[in-house]
Amino acid sequence: MVSTGIAPSPAKVEKGTQKLRVGVIGYGYWGPNVVRNLHGIEDVHPAVVCDMNPKSLDRVAKAHPSVRLTRDHREVVASPEIDAVAVVTPVWTHYELAKAALENGKHVFVEKPFTSNSKQAEELIELAERKNLKIMVDHTFVFTGAVRKIRELIDTGTLGELYYYDSLRVNLGLFQHDVNVIWDLAPHDLSIMDYLVDERPEGVVATGERHLNGHEDVAFITVYFPGRFIAHINVNWLSPVKVRTTLIGGEKKMLVWNDLEADEKIKVYDKGVQMGNGEGLHDVLVSYRTGDMWAPQVDRTEALRAELTYFRDCIVNDQTPRNDGHAGLRVVKMLEAADRSVKNRGAIVPL
Ligand SMILES: NC(=O)c1ccc[n+]([C@@H]2O[C@H](COP(=O)([O-])OP(=O)(O)OC[C@H]3O[C@@H](n4cnc5c(N)ncnc54)[C@H](O)[C@@H]3O)[C@@H](O)[C@H]2O)c1
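Above: query sequence and nicotinamide-adenine-dinucleotide SMILES. Below: predicted holo structure tokens.
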């Protein structure tokens, strides 16, 4: 339990008057990206970085000599000089740290996945709403140029009715000690789908297996929606090669998004299939359309920078982030459902 007992200091950041002062807890693998991007954003000041590991703090001191350092998260959450806290620590710590920050009147930016279970997420959402504070969950991919372009292709009707989302997100490691491959890698696809698809899913089927450290390292997840749209996600820590490829099929166009491509990340294919009736009672005419392929321009702004700028804007303008606690909760519910389904060898788990 990390409650500080110190009186809360409500974070009020008014447009044009003050910088958003952010404290970052956790400077392991992902934390340095958060701190580096905070440094580059106008009207944002990364004031303090906290990590319980002194070696991590040495790295901060080298990269950002002006930033205050501490090993004690309570100094961050209780500081009257901080308006918002970024929680960039392992998943099992998110709830306690975010709760302490909210209790002390700070807005929070929490890494994906939001919490270890949906009860914790619901509690944090209620606490933030009661205190009129913002929660943003780091669903980084939603802020990539590629995902924003795909959303545009959906919104303009270019793809037509969506048929499926099929993603391959595999690599060798990095093995996590506290979560399985579903909680490590699937939040990316689940949050992308949450942003791209307006319909809410109704059930999850998942299968997976543990080979090495007691956590599932290979998993296959299917997400059902009320309409005809269906999603499939393959996550794997035991792949000899890294693959980040997503197929999205629509009635009018289909696309392939290869996130490892430097240029032409998205290729849109004017391909499709139409069924018509032939002359005989049982004749079905199948016609295949194979038209052009084109690769639309994709904005190259670093996603985390765009996201943290949006975090500042949501606080200053009192707007609800699209990746708020509710979005984080929807992803956590799908992860929980996937875990339950894996335990029951692929039984469908309703959402
Ligand atoms: N958005 C993304 O694309 C993305 C990418 C990687 C990781 N992540 C997420 O970021 C989070 C951190 O992942 P990571 O890979 O950087 O983990 P990590 O283990 O490399 O680093 C975590 C750091 O937090 C520190 N820490 C833990 N508890 C602490 C506490 N109570 N007080 C102070 N410091 C504490 C540890 O000492 C460590 O340095 C996870 O939730 C992960 O899912 C997100």
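The longest strand covers residues 238-250.
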